[in-house]
């Protein structure tokens, strides 16, 4: 996810996070804002500009209140720099709105263009905070192929005491890269209505005989969608790079939807909201067994995710330990939440604390040991909200007898951290799954 020279790339692949493009947007945006702000009429400074300033302040405070206090789509409040750039974008729109009525048509066109440049600057600075879209291409739908491979191939598995990489010999002509397919995984038992997910098949999956590869079930955050791991997380590149270094071997990765909608929150539990745990612990594994030819023993199965998905990963690891032997928790929380603990228990379990405690991972780990479970925790060094929560979960998992590891990477609660968490997590999980030594 590093920037590359513009001259070597299609404009869709120019970096929005580093290099010339974001700085060009800053220059154009600030120039446009100054152009909208400056006027040589007294009426502008005494009446129209104060209106624009007042409207900007009111709209910014209103958006901040709606997001943080009323809507609460995020586990943490909007960061101050994000609020600042939202305010700048709104200021550009408000300045244009109060100028347009007194301008001729050419001036109106210029005002609209100037406002658009200010909005583009503000939007990209918010994007740079979260590192959500490294390029324009990342905003597009992922490129996928049909899932056509059958389950009738001869297979290769590792004997006791050996890893799969030690007994696997890639045939000539093995593809250099894996494939990505969009798939629908129905909630057959849970009744959960999930959005389409994705299946990544590494190059070795195309071979015959086919190695029985481990499985990683991966989840994005909330708000979020399965494609976030492909577009913003660079998942395919991470797995292709790992496969290139290991004779075409990598996990079969199934990216699933645990929430049903970008702004929904199922808590990854079976509750009054949804039967999300049943979906992830039964429907998803059953679909994989029915449609893919992979390793089936527990040790070869992992679950992982970022933020909400990270919290969900450790929840499934302790509530469905017979399904998932290892997990990757990137920037997760210490408790699934709908805002406050009281709101969570009330909405999900009708106020019954005992029902919440029965599945809350911190409570489960306090009363149950998991000596056969492994977990990796990754968090941004500058993540003041989720960093302390990750440390508490790591301590609880270690006390519960798990094989655990805790790593910090540069950054906060953003896609730079999430991407790096996957880079670290793929080989770490591969060792737990018996894929590599």
Describe it.
- The chain is of the alpha/beta class and 437 residues long.
- It has 2 domains: 6-130, no CATH class; 146-432, Rossmann fold.
- The protein is 45% helix and 11% strand.
- The chain is built from 14 helices and 10 strands.
- It has helices at 20-37, 42-71, 80-99, 105-130, 164-167, 227-231, 235-244, 276-291, 308-319, 341-349, 353-359, 361-367, 387-399, 415-432, and strands spanning 155-156, 179-183, 197-201, 210-211, 215-219, 252-256, 301-306, 326-330, 374-380, 403-409.
- Strands 2-3-6-5-7-8-9-10 form an 8-stranded mixed sheet, with helices on both faces.
- Strand 7 (301-306), helix 9 (308-319) and strand 8 (326-330) form a beta-alpha-beta unit.
- Helix 1 (20-37) packs across helix 4 (105-130) and helix 7 (235-244) runs parallel beside helix 14 (415-432).
- The two termini are 27 Å apart.
- The model is unreliable at 1-5 (pLDDT under 50).
Task: Chart the SSEs and their pairings.
Elements: H1 20-37, H2 42-71, H3 80-99, H4 105-130, E1 155-156, H5 164-167, E2 179-183, E3 197-201, E4 210-211, E5 215-219, H6 227-231, H7 235-244, E6 252-256, H8 276-291, E7 301-306, H9 308-319, E8 326-330, H10 341-349, H11 353-359, H12 361-367, E9 374-380, H13 387-399, E10 403-409, H14 415-432
Helix pairs in contact: 1-3, 1-4, 2-3, 3-4, 7-14
Transmembrane segments: 20-42, 49-67, 82-102, 109-126
GO molecular function, one term: hydrolase activity
Protein name: S-formylglutathione hydrolase FrmB
